Amino acid sequence: QVQLVESGGDLVKPGGSLRLSCAASGFTFSDYYMTWVRQAPGKGLEWISCISSTGASKFYADSLKGRFTISRDNANNSLALQLNSLRAEDTALYYCARSRWGLLDLWGQGTLVTVSS
Amino acid sequence: EIVMTQSPGTLSVSPGERATLSCRASQSVGSNLAWYQQEPGQAPRLLIYGASKRATGVPARFSGSGSGTEFTLTISSLQSEDFAVYYCQQYDDRPPYTFGQGTKLEIK
């Protein structure tokens, strides 16, 4: 079954860190770029980051100011997003998505990150 | 960073009628434009890519048009399952690949 399953979301205090994971199955993971997108409660979609198929190239939204780091493990078909220096405005549902030339043709169901004291 | 602007923010249409949603880019993105549908509580779903190509399994009542900076998503005869939020996304050249703020399509 072709799918993406995110995990790792949690309640974290401001200034804290969290590591999100995305497990891929049913397709050749190493053939695809992968992307993280987030959605704050009641808000629209925000493109966060993507990583090339080999992991050699990484791209980020300007707004993140170096706080997030994307990585992948092709041997284990997994994608990760390290979130540091978390703020209340990072509260969102975080989706991983498979990327073809930038468009997102397969999405997971998301994992919820809540930043609150 | 390319800014994507969708209009209107909310569109009220009756079932069976046509809906037209707009998306504008702050600079040319060629035909590198995708549309996504998001139903309540669900992940987004790819509808249109390359500005006008339907993704696998997308009904023919969905069509996309435009190039450069102006794009349109048309739903020819609205069904109950089409009432959702629609997002455009540009994927021209290098990231970041930005989204529009969304258009909510609601039942009139």
Structure characterization notes:
The complex is a heterodimer of chains A (117) and B (108). Chain A is mainly beta and 117 residues long. Chain A has no helices and 11 strands. In chain A, the strands form 2 sheets. In chain A, strands 2, 4, 5, 6, 9, 10 and 11 form a 7-stranded mixed β-sheet that branches. A 4-stranded antiparallel β-sheet of chain A has the order 1-3-8-7, with no helix packed on it. The relative contact order of chain A is 0.32. Chain B is mostly beta strands. Chain B has strands at residues 4-7, 10-13, 19-25, 33-38, 45-49, 53-54, 62-67, 70-75, 85-90, 103-107. In chain B, a hairpin with a 3-residue loop joins β5 (45-49) and β6. The chains are: A mainly beta (117), B mainly beta (108). The interface between A and B is medium-sized, with 21 and 25 residues.
List the helices and strands and how they pair.
The complex is a heterodimer of chains A (117) and B (108).
Chain A: E1 3-7, E2 11-12, E3 18-25, E4 33-39, E5 45-51, E6 58-60, E7 68-73, E8 78-83, E9 92-100, E10 103-107, E11 111-115
Parallel strand pairs in A: 2-11
Antiparallel strand pairs in A: 1-3, 3-8, 4-5, 4-9, 5-6, 7-8, 9-10, 9-11
Chain B: E1 4-7, E2 10-13, E3 19-25, E4 33-38, E5 45-49, E6 53-54, E7 62-67, E8 70-75, E9 85-90, E10 103-107
Parallel strand pairs in B: 2-10
Antiparallel strand pairs in B: 1-3, 3-8, 4-5, 4-9, 5-6, 7-8, 9-10
